[in-house]
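Researcher: Go.
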Amino acid sequence: MMGRLKYGLLASACLFFLEFSGGAHAAQKLACDGLTGEALGLKDVKILSASSTPAVKDSPVAHCLVKGVTAERTGADGKPYAIRFEFRLPDDWNGRFVHQFNGGNDGVVVPAMGLPVAASTQKGALASGFAVLSSDAGHDGKANPEAGLAGSNMFGLDPEAREFYGYKAVEFLTPVAKAFIKAYYGAAPQYSYGIGCSNGGRHGFVAAARLGKEYDGILAGAPGFDLPKAAIQHALDIQQLHAVNGDVRKALTVDDQQIVAKRILAACDKLDGLEDGIVSDTAACQKAFKPQDMICQPGQNSSCLPAEKVKALETMLAGPKNSKGEQLYSDWSWDPGIGGGNWRFWKIESPIAPWDHMPLIAVMGAGSLAQIFTTPPTKVGGDPASLEKFLLSFDFDKDASKIFATDGAFGKSAMSFMTPPDADNPKLSDFEAAGHKMIVFHGVGDPVFSFNDTRHWYERLAANYGGDASKFVELYPVPGMTHCEGGPATDQFDLFEKLVGWVEKGQKPADVIAALNPKNKDVPAAWPQLRTRKLCPYPQVARYTGGNPEEAASFACQ
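Model: Structure:
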């Protein structure tokens, strides 16, 4: 309890420093090597190094690189914990701050370059003059090597480490970062942004709900804001795929995936006015596509699937349910992204030998569901077989409710510490009242977090604002794109630039130009490399209006 009180008081002290300091700290700019916790009056912030870094290939602008730790403590599991962070403060600062929200289980300090996704066309927030912060969210993902593949999520055995991962690390570091900026540059940031994809997108959603006054703009991609529920989907996927032939990795072949994608295209590609390998009208496609039509008929052995494979896919995309038929997570959209390598990597098979070539959900996903997202946590073996066994034995009646459970020292459920407090009835009241803006993007073919879940969230938000939330939040579906990037899609775009223009100049975004990412292996060979398309704010759809079919100008958001 004292640890919780101590860290809460430190965060409050940081805010007090920012808002009311008028002495030496406010007036005196510190040199890079002068950035210390003591100099800032924050004794619990330990600077490990602070050095001037020249512009080089991997760091395109000269900046002050600060590495440090804070919130050091010993966990209930007897392990040492702290928030490790790095802060990059450019010499040519543009007066702005970006909190880089990282993905996965966190647990590593990703270099603070300020790129929301690898496929983004932007050069990175740091290179554009933003001060950028990155952290490990309060735990070291490599702290338990003896636990094998379950080691990176063993922090879930400590109640407070769970909470830091869920929301407290961002809550804690936000005022610390602003204090650093004010001390280093002699001025507070004019604008503050948060950017991230996947779990990073979830951090963005949580920050908008919990820290609505602190961030002027948030860019959230593939937001896993219902992450504990999405983890239940992992169990459903593995159980259904395993039932096909006893081997998840062989349940659906690459050719099977392509058959599904081609069948979706045959039913839906023309619905947006042009047959181009992209299904832009997702809603119409869900009505037009009939999964049962994929089942092989007597005498047919090509361009079709056995009934058991179609049943598995239909059950997976319907989302997990208990025996009462109650929905435990969202349903999913049928999209050609199902044919992509990223979709396969997450759900069916990986090229990683130490994982026994199991998909990511069967390895890292299983450990997270067992040790972080259910209460009390279940300690699992760190080998692929043990992790798969946990998912295969997951009971949707008895175990699914554990994401809402508390137990002794685990005083907060996974749904309470991982999700925005108002996720079921989103209002983002403080965020909206402050005039702040958020852009959300999500691949319709995402295999990890359902685009439908994000769409339903946005519709609930809109309902709370007279049917239209676009005055402060815009949602951009990306047809064909899988998790954050990849898939048969134009997945290279710059929504951060649009966000900055909206926040600082009142330029509300409309359509956004998306191009092909040269590194995307899922792009069909027949697509010209210069192909561009328009991403449209939901619920608009990019429809072909005539002209060069490879140019975005030939489409209109309608």
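Model: The longest helix spans residues 159-185.
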